[in-house]
């Protein structure tokens, strides 16, 4: 008997051939072997007593019990190895099967009963040679003792194990004869279908996939069963013996052919032919027989059983692939896998099986075209993704479910496998993840973070999701950081901080989002460790990239100056914010230019007030800490600016004085600067009218200098014949005079004691005209002599310093205000907040309110206010009436602080309660004797009022009007008298106002309207201040009487009514009484000291005057216009008698008020002061005032044109030029249409002239003119700018690019920048195709071969155009044209990025420019539609290998999307096939010679399925093996 392994099974190596017996088995040897086997065969196997396994006996009816089972195997090595391999395979497949569960129908072989931990009774089954096999070989036996033969004893039937208690009923029916396979038959594993030999055995013995070598049951058809003479004589051979034995070498026959020149070719042809034949014969050519497992409708029980088998890893999938339950799909599939804990790979297999059947159902329906089929597949893919999303969300957030943690792990693992296998719609899934993270609350945020972290590598690779992911994380960090329960979320906050710190270095491009960066920048900065320099540098780089994409950040130097001045002007209207220095520092990279603009603003005559000096000082202190050289900035300004105006010099001296005190300005470097210029040679250089650069040496604060610095200063001044000794004597004398005026002790022999003390007012006037050095000495002495003593006093000590009286404080305050040394005054105020004198504390509060913006810049206002509130609470516990002055002062101060509105209301309520409950008002020093000054009737009147107040009842309107008329008549009778009855009656009016404030104010308004018609009354300045001081009259009430009826139009602006007479009707009434002019004087000039009000009341009235200019701007403008109309009308009526506006001081103060109002709202000024008739006298007065605002030396004959206005325009004159422009435009031309056309032409002409003159400061005026004009100007500048850009038709060169073109382009860009930032066009700027055309032209220039044209483009033109395009990307229109323009811009940007990479070299660094274009492309891609983004990705498909482009377009390559199917034509027609002997042409390098046809190959991810059918076919894979030229193994 012989054996031949089937195709595909490698034959084990045999023994050496010996002679003619190559594969012969002699009959004698066979017989001897059979005899040996029979001699060692035991009747039955022996059971080991030491085993731990309990084996059941075989079926008695099994025929194998009586056959050979335990003899040692002998025979050929091939038989042993095949038997060993097959035994290993079978034992491995059944290693998990319990011996007790073995089916009785299976043969009871040793491979089935052998324990894995025990050796076999049959001996070693390994492929090593047995003892008998070694005996056949020529190798001698080793001298070892003979091994005892292994055998098994027969188990008698008496010792057989008992049968089971309940044996099954024996089948007594006759059975057909079956051939039993011997247990010693060698077994081997077969691949594919079993041959007929294997099938011939009994069905209960043959195992599937197992063959038996050298065993062929007798059927009469096998060649071995046919007897012949040769078989009887020589035995049976598998192969016929060779007729002629090879006895000599073949060298003689072959050497002649190989020695020929074509021998090598013949040999290679023979081998190639052999390879070709083998390939052709073994190649798989059958078509693919892949079919997905079918689905069958089954019962619930069978479906449950099937799912349990699927969850059992030992159940092969091929058995399960016969049928799949039809009802398992969608969410049910996922839930079943979760509940049954199906292994992940088997769950994915099931999902693929169900999915591929669902997808094929669309094709089987046959309805619709391929487009409909693809749409159905996409819908299935999307729906399946939604189901998976709902599944994972339900499992992850089902916290109440049992085994929640295990279920979450399984759900996440399964979902991740589905994602990796591309069985989900990735775009929809990533969108779901990011959207859920964005809208998650703090309770669910940790789980969403876990889910996002699994897929965040893919999320961060795409701009569409990466930016939103980062913004969502930063937003959540910001929300938790500012949460009221921040400590409870500390672990979550730490996790978010760690994620952001990781992302800021690994994925900085996702932080490039200007709109979100400005909102969360500070929050992100706080989460970066202070010592982590790498992350700090990454944060600064990201901040720089975001600033480049903000429209306001693309600033040329003029635009930066305009922004800085606008922010600085805000400090003149509102308190200086703490973040202002840092905000101003970030406006521009040119810090020297910023410092120069700040110094020019501080010393400008167009910015009134002293607050600007302290604002500038505070900003320069902050900038110096950031590295600014303040000393050099000031000296550079002195080099280019002569400072001819005295007001500018005083501001410079004052600023330097503050900087020297802070140690910021270096005096030695300033002295070196003077010495280098040789300026101090004449006495004129140091006189008060001398140059500012040299006079500054005299104005330095001597008390802040060191001894050596004083010596150097003195030596320099002596060279200019300036006496330092006289300066010191003047300062000493001034201090002595102040000591005498304040009542402080002097030396006994001091000659000043013999002189009369100088009054404080006169002394303050002398201090006001002194040098800054003397003022600084005075301020320092007052601070050191008073503030320190007040601070160092010890309560209860005998030597305690006395409380500072209100009069003493008033004197000190007057002197410090005259010296304008508010830094010293601030320290004095802080020291006095611990005083217990109510009047002094109230005066401190009034001082802060009077100079609120100055003390806000110094940082004194908040601490002083807090100290005063503390004292109010401490002193008000026992004396509520006494603290009323302090409470009233704080009521006026609190509303000026931002965010203290509620506190101000609370203080006001306390003040009202005190006024109502206390009949005696103690706010005035003369209130104690008020009752004695009233007559009996007046006393009764007062008692009636107090009685009603005490009882809490209210007065009816008739009674209030009666009382008011009585008091008003008696008050009028007191006018012009020197007694104090006028104050007493004013107090009665104040008490009467408490009953009904609204009705009282209406009665008071009627009375004031009556007063403005009286001719024999005193001046308003002697009536109204007292009424305002006692609280029965408000400043707004006075302004209400100084106006005319207003009509409110649709714009919301108050417009004056038309007047047909020579002036407004109210002016014609008040022209005789000069009421309007007197009221105007009341608001602009100090009130006269006539003894009716005290000094403190006069000080508080000045506070109200200042507040009226800030809070009642519109009413004041109306008053100014009516006062001018009244003055002009009176002069036309030949009334020249003592008009207030004839006073030059009043005119100067009026001009200062108008300047302040123009800085606040220039457009409102133009609207309020507009006069309908240009020829009226009022129009001339208004024109003169607006002209003087620009040209202080102008008179009534000065005329200014529109071109001159543009020439005078700069950052500081801009508000005044705007007001002048608006007033001039309103007065030009009678017809509106003609006026608009003339304005358009005027602006176009003026713009061209100004730009040619390099003057673009006037661009700030454009936001106040007609939007159509602004749009026209913007288009004109845009056209000129784009025309300057080069192209391939007009390429630039290094030598021919004039500087004026670059300057012109920068100026035009500044004009466009200012117009867009101003937002006055009435429409948002949009990208237009012409801009993208110019960008494409620059791309062509860079891609051209002209190397001379590239440097100017890289250095100038491309950055200019990027700035220009960035200005137009802030808004997005969702229309289709806008999307197309942005899509084209993205394509051009992508081309520029790759072109700049090509141009990059050590000599030309293009990385910064490439990064900027990349950021701009990201900004454009954020707002582009998905269709446009996909269109761009298709257009750049060949360039998508660049990860930057894939990131911008959010395009990720799908697996297998670039696969193609190659179809060779003419393969069977000879040619290459015959030439290469059937071998592929690629082996010979001739593949290109065969014509090919490439067709797209679609890889269906759902069909990539393992073990789809129970039967293994030759080509049953999802992708046909014929595509790969596969061969059979």
Characteristic key phrases:
1529 residues; two-stranded parallel sheet; single chain; 56% helix; two-stranded antiparallel sheet; mainly alpha
Would you write up a description of this structure?
There is one protein chain. The chain starts with 26 loop residues before the first helix and ends in a 33-residue tail after the last strand. The longest helix is centred in the first third of the chain and has 27 residues, at 370-396. Strand 5 and strand 6 form a beta hairpin. The protein has 1529 residues and is mainly α. It is elongated and about 170 Å long. Helix 35 (838-850) runs antiparallel to helix 37. The strands form four sheets. A two-stranded antiparallel ribbon has the order 1-2. The protein has 65 helices and eight strands.
Low-confidence stretches: 1-142, 150-165, 193-206, 790-801, 920-936, 1047-1062, 1466-1488
Biggest pleated sheet: 2 strands, antiparallel
Number of strands: 8
Helix content: 55-70%
Radius of gyration using CA atoms only: 53 Å
TL;DR of this structure?
This protein has 1529 residues and is mostly helical. A two-stranded antiparallel sheet has the order 1-2.
